[in-house]
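Below is a typical protein record.
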Amino acid sequence: MKKIIYPVLLIIYLLTNKTFGNNLFVSENLKTDSLKDQKKITKLYSDKQLGVIKEDNNTVFRLFAHGAEYVALVLYNNPEEAQGKIFEMTSDNNDIWERSLEGEYYGKYYNFLVRHPESRPVQCLDPYAKAVATLNTYWNPRKGIIINDEYDWEGDKWIQRDWRDLIIYEMHIKDMTAHPSSGASSPGTYLGLVEKGITGG
């Protein structure tokens, strides 16, 4: 399911940005050609797994970047690091860019550096990243995190309802009770949130 959801979210993001002619502009500096021809889309199909994959003793990075003329992997030791180590990637006939590094890189951070014709290189978050680090700043830069998803759960089983039957709500703790109309004795706090007999603000 994740293999389907993440690409769909990326497509929605691209389509909600400005569209000019046959090109989609994600920003003034990054341009990707839109694929409207079904034959071209089918021709570019690949069964290679995208994102970060552990294969034997290697860590493999793959990204689909149609029309890109240069793609590189940028590795960081921490999310605040400004300059990462750059590894150039190579492309196959399906526009899958790939780089294989020997060993494990769990706990490292990464992005892809992508350059299309008529644009400067732009760092992009991996749409297949399994975890993301972000900073609470205006610019809010993001980096993917390389994680080990082969954790041994020691026979534990999912004890909740089927996740497809769940409806999950998100809220801001402070906003729920900050207004005087909430009636909370400790407004804007966790205590105010769990207080019984109030309606929220």
In short: The longest strand covers residues 58-64.
